[in-house]
Structure formats: structure tokens, C-alpha cells
Specification:
The chain has about 80 residues and is of the alpha+beta class. The protein is built from one helix and four strands.
């Protein structure tokens, strides 16, 4: 990946890491482990285009999850690797 060697926000060094991303869709949430480039100075995260598409697909699934006749208060999911 590494489109940036330096952070576009603060100019700090970028490093590849596996991070946890919290996604919301409707009243539901999911925690996803994902690769990202993370700034060692300010913590800014940069994701690949493929990861962003994956996040959007997960958000759509979360938004569609509804119980018939029930008012959703929320659910949490962990995405299987």
C-alpha cells in the first residue's frame, strides 16, 4: 500500500499496522480488524480503496439487519476474518 511516506495531515512518518475499526450501520455496530497506514505522530489512519469498499459493504449489511416487529436498540458484531 504505502501511498504516502509522510502523513498528509502533520508530516509524521507512516507505518503499516493492523488496527480495529468500528463501523456503524443503522443502530448496529461491528468491529473490524484491518490493515492501515498509521501516522506515528498524530495517529491519522489511511486505508486502501479495497478496505474502504469492504467497510461500505459491511455498513450496508448492518443497516439492513432489523428484527420484524421490534424497534432495534442496537447490536454489536465482530466480523469473521
Amino acid at each position: 500500500m504505502m501511498p504516502f511516506k509522510l502523513c498528509p495531515v502533520c508530516g509524521g512518518e507512516m507505518r503499516s499496522k493492523v488496527v480495529e475499526k468500528l463501523l456503524r450501520g443503522g443502530n448496529n455496530t461491528a468491529t473490524v480488524s484491518s490493515k492501515a497506514e498509521v501516522c506515528t505522530h498524530c495517529g491519522e489512519r489511511l486505508y486502501s480503496r479495497e478496505q474502504i469498499i469492504r467497510f461500505e459493504e459491511i455498513r450496508k449489511k448492518l443497516d439492513k439487519t432489523r428484527g420484524a416487529g421490534l424497534r432495534p436498540v442496537g447490536r454489536s458484531y465482530q466480523v469473521a476474518v
